[in-house]
Amino acid sequence: MQGYGMITLASTLLSQRPSASLDNDSSSSPFSLEVSFFYVSLYLITLAQGVGKPCGLAFAADQFDPNHAREFTARSSLFNWWHFSIAIGISFAVIVVSYIQENPGWGIGFGMLCTIMICAFVVFLLGIPTYRLHVPGSDNPFARLGRSVFALARNSSLCVCAKRHHHEDEDVATSMEEARCVLQLLPIWAACLAYGVVIAQIMTLFNK
């Protein structure tokens, strides 16, 4: 939100500066400060997206109880609507926002996006009392995943070299099951690469 506010201000200041003065004294201090302010706002937006996007979907999924049948179904539907909304938003940005920026002005286009972000932030704040906040465990998830994969590999080698025990340690069995669940996600992750390649083209279009 702050980044969009800054880029709206920067775009407005740059658009009000005469083009002739930009060509003649492009190295002057006021213009350099305006351009620096513009790039700081761009990097601030990029930083916010890099931090927020990976957490947004996981935070939304945490609001549903997987042990409740109705909420489990609703959580599955969440992922469909999430990506559908992203696709609609990108289409809106490419078609509508780009037209507004190129014709009425960049400041108006970014100002509209800043207004949308403010409204979204207000809705987020209003929902805080109803959010389910899960306290993370003390165990490092990467270390836990490494132990799970190691337990699965060790058990596989033992099955080949020796007779398997009838009674496995409960922790080892749990680790093996977690490793299997992660490995089963790899084909889904690979299938999503094509979707990621298409989404990456949007940023290329934005730069152009």
Structural overview:
The chain is mainly alpha-helical. The protein folds into two domains: 1-134, no CATH class; 139-208, no CATH class. Helix content is 81%, strand content 0%. The chain has seven helices and no strands. The longest helix is centred in the C-terminal third of the chain and has 38 residues, at 170-207. It holds the Pfam family PTR2. GO terms for molecular function: transmembrane transporter activity. InterPro entries: MFS_trans_sf, POT_fam.
By DSSP (H or I, 4+ residues per run), the number of helices equals: 7
What composes the largest sheet?
A: none
The helix fraction, in percent, is over 70%
Q: H/E series, N to C?
A: HHHHHHH
Strand content: under 5%
Shape: elongated
- The overall number of domains is 2
The average pLDDT score comes to 75
Unreliable runs: 160-164
